[in-house]
Amino acid sequence: MQKMLITTPIYYVNDSPHLGHAYTTFIADMLKKYHSLQGKEVFLLTGTDEHGQKIALSASKHHLSPLEYASKISQKFRTEWDYFKIDYNHFVRTTDSTHEQAVQQALDTMLAKGDIYKGTYEGNYCVSCESFTTNSTTCPDCNRPTSKVAEESYFFRLSAYQERLLDFYNKHPHAILPLFRRNEVVSFIKQGLHDLSITRTSFEWGVPLPRHLNEPRHVVYVWLDALLSYVSSLGYGTDNANIDYVNHALHIVGKDILRFHAIYWVAFLMSLDLPIFQQLCVHGWWLIEGVKMSKSIGNVLNAKDLAQSYGAEALRYFLLREAPLGQDGDFSVQALIRRFNADLSNTLGNLIQRLAGLLKPFSGELKSTHTLEFYAPLYTQWQAQLESLKGYLQELQLHRYLEELWRVFEACNATIAKEQPWALAKTNPKKAQALLALVATFLAKSVFYLYPVLPESASKLAKWLHISLEPKSFQAYMQKDFLLPALNLAPIEALYPKLEEVQATTKETPKEPQNAYIKFEDFSKLDLQVGTIVKAEKVPKSDKLLCLQIDFGGRVRQILSGIAKHYSPESLEGKQVCALLNLPPRPMLGLVSEGMVLSASDKDGLKLITPLELVSNGAKIG
Length: 622
Fold this sequence. Notes:
This protein is an alpha/beta fold. Helix 6 (179-190) crosses helix 9 (258-271), helix 10 crosses helix 11 and helix 13 (371-387) runs parallel beside helix 17 (429-450). It contains 21 helices and 26 strands. The strands form 8 sheets. It has a 6-stranded parallel β-sheet, with helices on both faces. A 5-stranded antiparallel β-sheet has the order 20-19-18-21-24. The chain has a 4-stranded antiparallel β-sheet with strand order 5-4-6-8. 41% of the residues lie in helices and 20% in strands. The longest helix is centred in the middle third of the chain and has 26 residues, at 333-358.
């Protein structure tokens, strides 16, 4: 049996879990359930990252020791995942003694290999992200001010792994999904890697170095510490009890920690001669009305609170279905309710109730004896639709997986409306039963794909259909000639009762401005930057749009622009353009645009606005 490791990030305990944490964990749990039904032995790992300067400062503010504070927040995460019935195998804490032992062994191994040396770090440090920046007074990840740091440190020779990292990503082009994130990583590596500070002496809250080094002032820097939890949880540094799971690893992370996983973690694994993950799945952020969740502006949403108001499965389905993986999504309660009512209540829920009701003339008895005689073409078509889902899971296109699954339910509803089995029951009962058996068979097949997303209601549906949700049943039901045996189906409760829509408040229409002037402060709010187009391609089903991947100083954004009639994709790659970046993400034809490229039009056509001379990517305009 193939073993597989699936991980969430080891969540930082600087605050309570929020909607973004839940999204990541729902993805991991969905993938575990899906691959388990495929017959794989899956180890799902989650946990909390508890060391670092920020934790020590937060603990002090709350008049607690760092361990007391970390334990309090860590328990909140564990309670949250238990509430959502996340099927994790291990919850790691970086304060676990076995984890600390693993970190110390890894340090010894890296030292013996010559990958760690002692020196002095001088540069800028972001306390919020627990990360170093070379000479920037602003953190490139969170935009908060950095502080100057000068202290003795041990360094990891990251620069020595630059070519090996490039070679790995050349040989494994699908190691990072979505693919544009892989391009972003490769671009960053090519700019040159600097050796990485991995210890600190300015605070004490961290894993101490091995005793034989006689360095009591040093503690391990948080990222080396946290990343090693992926293998310490499998027994690295102790008994290696589950270390073989690392041969097939899938990490789920947010885009803000891409660099740490795609560069630092891969280099650490190379240094330790451990297998590199098979895939790194990078998702976007959930925005609230176009703005990233932030405690400082008070728009952080708690997943458990939302679930208690609207249902855990409603929330889980919305987050997995609404936004393409890798792109930012915009959350609103109104959108959640509408998605639930349209997909779950009206489409799937209605289908289940219709099937149960249409069986009443037959006393609830279901027979598939004549199904292929009457409906073989539909069977073949729907079977192919279900078989396509595996490809979407392999590419981690979770929204497409659900979109295509729902097409089967929509097709079932449409066929019932067209064939009118309530009338057939009187004129041609064999054909009516054949149709109802066809619909029930595909509900039965679909429930295996539904379970990873909606485990509670799918389990109820499976029980109604007399199905055991296990790998052997999955294999049997997915056979191309499978039909449900004769069954008696009793009435079933409504699995997805409609949610009540939230009434939006009416806003007063703004008055026209008295003049065309704007204040300087208004202009200064515009985030205008220069970037280089690293990839350009046409958008399917559109003769106007090009999909551009633009590097804004180490950050690659996807922007859709209606310039396809004026520029070919190949003519744009490598060109610098000017763009407005602080626009809300805009869904377009299944993609999401994260800004607007500036252009000008006259009688000679459209021209992109570009700098007269080359400037650094990310340079501000203004």
